[in-house]
Amino acid sequence: RIRRYEADQLDVIGITFLPLEQREEVRRRHADDYTSAAGLKTGFVAFDVNRPPFDDARVRRAFVMTTDREALANGALGGYVGPATGGFVPPGMPGHWAGIGLAFDAEAARRLLAEAGYPKGAGFPPVGLLTCLAAEARAACVAAQWEDTLGVEVRWEALPWAEYLGRLSQDPPTLVDYTWAADYPDPDSF
Description:
alpha/beta
């Protein structure tokens, strides 16, 4: 798509799903053409709540409360997105409720993990986190936050889109990094 755009074969391309480094390079190269607009989408990590250790709500809450969304949005994701603090429905859409998400609280997260039987991550099984190449920076950031704060091992893997989709249907991991975009501007699409 980029080559076709640069050859004047396309008038517009989206760069949202390019890996961050490539996105930055395209944005710099075409600074006069670049336009940013809000999108009705949410990036998230889904837990398989039927498999240990994420069958325990305390573990899930600990992981969520260890995710520093400000650092994720403004650091690892380069400020291209806003921090997800309003639940699953994105800002600008009816049903978004700012502040409904669990706040970043590393101490409370460590307490919850200890209550679940994993003090300082001791005995916590290694977990896999699957993502696509375009979201690699997000997965790396949250995995590092969880490892640093909770003392758990997260093995993340970034795949090309087609392989990622195949793995989701054939061999889904315990954790999946995903993005959902509204098919139409209504919270029902989420």
